[in-house]
Amino acid sequence: MTKRAAGTDHRVRVVVVRFLLIASLVAAGLKLVQVQGFEAEALASRAERQRVQKIPIPATRGSILDRNGVELAFSVEARALAFQPNLQRKQIAEFNRKHPDKQVSFDEETAAIARRMRELLGPQLSEEDLLAKLRSDDAFVYLTTTAEPAAARRLKEEFPQLNVEYRAVREYPGGTLAANVVGFANWRMEDKDHQKHNLHGLVGLEMLRDNDLSGTPGSQMVETEEGADVIIPGTERDLQPAVDGKDIELTIDADLQFFVQQKAAEYAQRSGAKSASVVVMDAKTGEVYALANDKTFDPSTRGGRDPNLMSDPAVTTPFEPGSVNKVVTAMAALEYGVTTPDAVHAVPGSIKVADRVVGDAWDHGTLNMTTTGVFAKSSNVGTLMIANQVRPERFADMLGKLGIGKRTGIGLPGESPGKVLPQSQWSGSTYGNLPIGQGLSMTVLQMAGMYQTLANDGVRVPPRIVKAKIAPDGTRLDEPRPEPVRVVSPETARKTRDMLRAVTQKAPNQNSGTAPAAALTGYQISGKTGTAQQFDQAAGRYSNSKYWITFAGILPADNPRFVIGMVYDTPAYSTPDGHSAAPFFHDVASFIAQRYNLPLSKEPTPVVPLVVP
């Protein structure tokens, strides 16, 4: 019985084992059927997703050029190098645990990376800063964003733990040159995984024209080796090519812009002014050849990007123009037949307007002044006498035609419209202020625009600073020209220009104008000086010590090519260069005449009587 029982137990075990084997084979078969049949497509899709990547193809940002093709801003290809300190610590710790005989030092490794980066990328990288980033407690840090591609490739080969990303570096070869116009662009994060970056404009035309300059990035689907970012050859598909950005061509002349910027800084310092701004425009087209301030920023260096200097006062900061605004009265008086250039006016030392008494900048009794003399000597009293004959409604209409109180539409950020009250809100004393340039405000660009109207035979052409867009294939698309506005007749414009030539004349017997220093040998110059009291908000009245000093002029007056306008904010009025911007105008006009080989005027400026016996 014992032997039979043992044999029976053995047979039972054999049967059980066979049953289990059969069951296992059946289960495996069923699983295989499920995987290969029902789940095959899903699993294949999941595997493909794990190795398929969408690779971005960056678009090259367009350049910004001056009117002669000089690059003011352009992009060069670069690489960003990044590191994952926490992950690297864990990987080294795990390696050391598994290989006690092959210990790796985290500090030695990071020191080697920092040392090699300085060798390949330049000593301007601080080893101390690099080590601080490499040994930080962060999950992800950027070590540099401007590595040269070949150097980045060598570093990646030597240190696979580095992350390499495509970048483009925006170059500004002129540094501060036209920075107030061009602005600057930089990289901007768009998600948290550090995979998507775009170079975007942040200030100036880089910002306003970002869509044109940026282009459209492309992409391509590729397959990569498992656990690596190595693309498997032949797996590239679904190519969406990048469309590079357009170049933007400006009306700015880089050489003139450089000179004007230097002169603005020089004269601001010489005059003791808080600031100085200047604009140079084409007399016929309104194209801006230079738009400068005494202070600006340097987009080419992080240290030069002072946010306080990134605005453009020439278009953002209005001021009361003072006597430069008398050109409005001059044009209106001639246009409506109120007076003629040679008509004589008995001008007393002061005049009462509503509840105010207005006098001239110099004490005098009654003077017999020609209309030309009233404006050439900048008589407030004479101007108001003529303005009273023009009448407020026609004066207001002239301001409107000249675009005062409205943005010019030049296409720069933060442009101010200035301010002028509608006629319906004028009080009795308002008309004692406006004709002499107080009680309204404008930018230096708007001020120059009034004189562009004179230079262009009475037609105002709103200024522009972008000349054209140029596609990657070279196709050129000129910017739409602004709609011109007829302000006064050609005859009125010519007569007003001729009257304002006397501003720069030097003659005996009270016949000198207010700005002989603006005269340029060989050329007829029309222009106007201005001195405006600044309003003291604390005192609630106009200051007797703080002024805006202005000048606007036309070169040459007999065959206008350029208009130049400039303003000082609160100069030291007692200094030689603080009470007039005429010397500043002279220097800019002289440079322009030489640079553009302007023909000399056919005749010298005639000396005309301003005060008659």
TrEMBL record:
Residue ranges of every copy of the Penicillin-binding protein dimerisation domain listed in the record: 56-227
Gene3D superfamilies reported for this sequence: 3.30.450.330, DD-peptidase/beta-lactamase superfamily (3.40.710.10), Penicillin-binding protein 2a (Domain 2) (3.90.1310.10)
InterPro entries, per database record: Beta-lactam/transpept (IPR050515), Beta-lactam/transpept-like (IPR012338), PBP_dimer (IPR005311), PBP_dimer_sf (IPR036138), PCN-bd_Tpept (IPR001460)
Family: Belongs to the transpeptidase family.
Biased composition (Basic and acidic residues): 475-484
Sequence ranges assigned to domain Penicillin-binding protein transpeptidase in this UniProt record: 277-588
Membrane-traversing stretches: 12-33
GO biological process, one term: cell division
Subcellular location(s) per record: Membrane
PANTHER family per record: PEPTIDOGLYCAN D,D-TRANSPEPTIDASE (PTHR30627), PEPTIDOGLYCAN D,D-TRANSPEPTIDASE FTSI (PTHR30627:SF1)
Coiled coil, from the record: none
Record protein name field: Cell division protein FtsI (Penicillin-binding protein 3)
CC annotations in GO: plasma membrane
Keywords noted in UniProt: Cell cycle, Cell division, Membrane, Transmembrane, Transmembrane helix
Organism domain of life: Bacteria
Segments for region (Disordered): 474-494
Gene Ontology MF, one: penicillin binding
